[in-house]
Design goal:
Blueprint: E1 2-3, E2 11-16, H1 22-32, E3 40-46, E4 51-57, H2 60-63, H3 66-71, E5 77-83, E6 98-100, E7 107-115, H4 118-127, H5 140-147, H6 153-162, E8 166-174, E9 177-182, E10 191-195, E11 198-202, H7 206-211, E12 214-218, E13 223-228, E14 231-236, E15 245-246, H8 247-253, E16 259-260, E17 263-264, H9 265-279, E18 286-289, H10 295-305, E19 313-315, E20 321-322, H11 328-338, E21 339-341, H12 343-346, E22 350-355, H13 362-373, E23 378-383, H14 405-408, H15 411-418, E24 422-425, H16 428-437, E25 443-444, H17 446-449
Parallel strand pairs: 15-25, 18-22, 22-23, 23-24
Antiparallel strand pairs: 1-20, 2-5, 2-11, 3-4, 3-5, 6-7, 7-8, 8-9, 9-13, 10-11, 10-12, 13-14, 16-17, 19-21
Bound molecules: 1-O-pyrophosphono-5-O-phosphono-alpha-D-ribofuranose, glutamine (GLN), iron/sulfur cluster and magnesium ion (MG).
Length: 472
């Protein structure tokens, strides 16, 4: 089964300490994070004596049965995960949270992100006697923790985290604590919340809204937070802090109602659309956003340009997941099934279409053609992000160079290929201006600029890497 999205997500994590409905809250939290990963899901719980978990392939509702949920009910502590694979194939053994048993105690672990030195670390650990159970990058943390001989949990955790390179938001559960860690670049979002008297953690604040939790604050790069019966402990695993939050979270990945530093993604996307309007000198009769993720940018564009926004494209909401074979022809068929123009809205009009990104160009190529066929006089494309040119090594599947149209072609060549009357991308500077205006302290923009903020030590694309076969 393939998801027909042009960009593929990452993962979502949730955790809660000491709540009588811990597993239920985790299930609800994960449900609202489903857009971050649809390949597998799981929950691991703890009760002060041991850990117990359930996981499965597919969407959350498919992955966990009612009986499994009932078996998790009595546990007061829980972590959960929804997965979109970056390193390691899409198979049950790689579905998280992982659960390890040892005479020193049980350990549960869930990760959002991608480690760029997992191959090296794994080889060294294996040479030292470790036997891995999965082909995922995330498992190395468990072995690093187990290998450390210190009797102090936090010392073990800090030392293990310092050896990891890349993007990671981790929740780690043992019998008597839940540890939350974010890498020193803070590439992936991680939020702290509170429900009743219990602390919780989630990839996005939409999980707090769904569970009824209060959103406290964004977790900072390099932070290490421990929840236990002693309360909450705020610390850092490193002094280094180089904020480089993923720009694509704002542009495309996060849910529109999720907040970053107490501003919704919707508002940020609207601002990106406004900035684009300032940089795009084209007159038109109507503005159309590509549903759903680009509607906010189209709204901002429309307000700034003073051109009314219309719903000129309709999305068939049941085509989110379809049985299709891979390949360009199948993708084109899928986009045709997914989007269609509203004829009497577009007929005879000069149109500006706003999309949040162009990856392979399949969506824009189809839209321009379909709008012209429905009678549009002119079709101008505006993209509320800079040209996407490079693959991501930090937890998002944006394909390889060969598949990304802007890494092969100039803007004029892309315009020609998608047959638009004009094509304008948002500039990198304007994008950063928007983020700074909402309190961002630094953003990763490597897929646009090629400036990778974290050295790619393994030098292999995550989606080509399966650590079972070394992948290199
Ligand atoms: O150039 P392409 O390869 O066609 O990819 C670009 C498209 O992919 C994304 O949408 P997607 O279809 O993933 O889903 P959405 O409905 O969530 O916007 C993005 O919003 C663009 O519309
Ligand atoms: N997308 C993610 O965050 C995936 C986490 C981890 N790298 C995996 O592949 O399972
Ligand atoms: S390379 Fe792009 S998708 Fe990857 S973390 Fe950086 S901004 Fe996000
Ligand atoms: Mg889209």
């Amino acid at each position: 089964m393939y998801d027909i999205r042009g960009l593929n997500e990452e993962c979502g994590i949730f955790g809660v300490w000491n709540h009588e409905r811990a597993s239920e809250l985790t299930y609800i939290g994960l449900h609202s994070l489903q857009h971050r990963g649809q390949e597998g899901a799981g929950i691991v719980c703890a009760n002060g004596e041991y850990l117990f978990g359930a996981r499965g392939m597919g969407l959350l509702t498919e992955a966990l049965s009612k009986d499994q949920l009932v078996s998790l009910r009595e546990f007061p502590h829980a972590i959960g995960h929804v997965r979109y694979a970056t390193t390691g194939g899409s198979e049950l053994s790689n579905v998280q949270p992982f659960l390890f048993k040892s005479h020193r105690g049980d350990l549960g672990l869930a990760h959002n992100g991608n480690l760029v030195n997992a191959v090296r670390l794994r080889e060294a650990l294996e040479d030292d006697g470790a036997i891995f159970q999965t082909s995922s990058d995330s498992e190395v943390l468990a072995h690093l923790l187990r290998k450390n001989k210190s009797s102090d949990r936090k010392t073990r955790m800090k030392s293990a985290l310092r050896q990891l390179k890349g993007a990671f938001a981790f929740v780690v559960l043992d019998e008597d604590s839940l540890t939350i860690a974010l890498d020193d670049h803070g590439v992936r979002p991680l939020m702290l919340g509170k429900i009743d008297d219990s602390y919780c953690v989630a990839s996005e604040t939409c999980a707090f809204t769904a569970t009824g939790a209060e959103y406290i604050r964004d977790i900072e790069p390099g932070e290490l937070i421990t929840l236990s019966d002693d309360g909450i402990d705020f610390d850092r695993y490193t002094d280094s802090e180089k904020p480089n939050m993923c720009s694509m979270e704002y542009i495309y990945f996060a849910r529109a109602d999720s907040e970053f530093r107490h501003t919704s993604t919707y508002t940020i996307r609207k601002s990106l659309g406004k900035q684009l309007a300032r940089e795009m000198d084209v007159d038109a009769d109507i503005v159309i956003g590509v549903p759903d993720s680009s509607l906010a940018a189209a709204k901002g564009f429309s307000e700034e340009a003073g051109i009314k926004q219309e719903q000129g494209l309709l999305k068939n909401r049941y085509v989110g997941r379809t049985f299709i074979s891979a390949g360009q022809e199948a993708r084109e068929r899928a986009v045709r099934m997914k989007l269609s123009p509203v004829r009497d809205v577009v007929e005879g009009k000069r149109i500006i279409v706003i999309d949040d990104s162009i990856v392979r160009g399949t969506t824009s190529r189809f839209i321009v053609k379909a709008l012209r066929k429905a009678g549009a006089k002119e079709v101008h494309m505006g993209v509320s992000s800079p040209p996407l040119k490079n693959p991501c090594f930090y937890g998002i599947d944006v394909s390889t160079h060969a598949e990304i149209i802007a890494s092969q072609k100039s803007t004029e060549e892309i315009r020609e290929e998608i047959d638009a009357d004009s094509l304008t991308y948002l500039s990198v500077d304007a994008m950063h201006d928007v983020y700074h205006s909402y309190g961002s302290r630094g953003q990763c923009d490597a897929c646009f600029t090629g400036n990778y903020p974290i050295e790619i030590i393994d030098q292999v694309l995550p989606q080509e890497k399966d650590l079972k076969t070394k992948g290199v």
